Amino acid sequence: MQLRRHDVLDGAIAILDEYGLADLTMRRLASSLHVQPGALYWHFPNKQTLLGAVADRILEPIDAPVTAVSWDGQLLELAHRLRDALLSIRDGAELVSATYASRLTTTQAREKFVKAALRAGMPRPEAELAAYTLLYYVLGHTVDEQSRMQMDSYGALTEDASPLFETPDATARFDFGLQLFVGGVRNRLGDRVRA
Question: Which residue in 63, 71, 141, 170 is a FRET match for 180, CA 20 to 30 A apart?
């Protein structure tokens, strides 16, 4: 059987989901696919390129058409869709965050945030900054959330380990931050805000 690019991605995601980012090595991936490590390099010239492709696969749900009509509804929908995609795979938030930082992902998630901010009435330079702000909020929140979930599953979190968070509901904390963001956009635009 010939090894195809999507087989390599599927194998990488399976390892990531079962063992985590630290254990996603080219050697382990090759072993799980029953090939020599060199066979992987036919599809991906290095591990960083592979990680970028894995991040793009994790972020595929962001590419679906947005159903919300209003700009704020679009931002909220996209932010939740991004969070859900990141949480769907173990260490997904950490991996995507790293690939964004190194510019290895080709996803259009940030541009979707930009379009919603433009729809609100922001000038393009501000819409770009707003998109980065929201993207990094979602990534940061979700990295923390995913880390806490994993620590909790290992019994490493004690009840007094999170005094900063009054509510244990991660979605409620996430939504509060999103509402602050949308409120900030409305405040910045003042009378210029669009529906």
Answer: 63
10 vs 58: CA distance, rounded Å: 11
Q: What confidence tier does 135 reach under pLDDT thresholds 50, 70, 90?
A: very high
How many domains in the chain? 2
51 within a domain of the structure (yes/no) = no
CA angle (126 as vertex; 143, 68 as ends), nearest 5: 65
Same domain (yes/no): 80, 134: yes
Domain that holds residue 41: 5-45
Long-range contacts of 38-46 (CB under 8 A, 24+ apart): 39/3, 40/3, 40/8, 42/3, 43/3, 43/4, 43/5, 43/8, 44/5, 44/8
Residue type at 126 in one-letter notation: E
Q: How far apart are CA 171 and CA 98, in angstroms?
A: 23
Question: How many Å apart are CA 7 and CA 137, to the nearest integer?
Answer: 32
Q: What does the pLDDT look like over 55-75, one tens digit per residue?
A: 999 999 999 999 999 999 999
**Amino acid, res. 108:** Q
Residues 67 and 155 in one domain: yes
Q: Give the global pTM.
A: 0.87
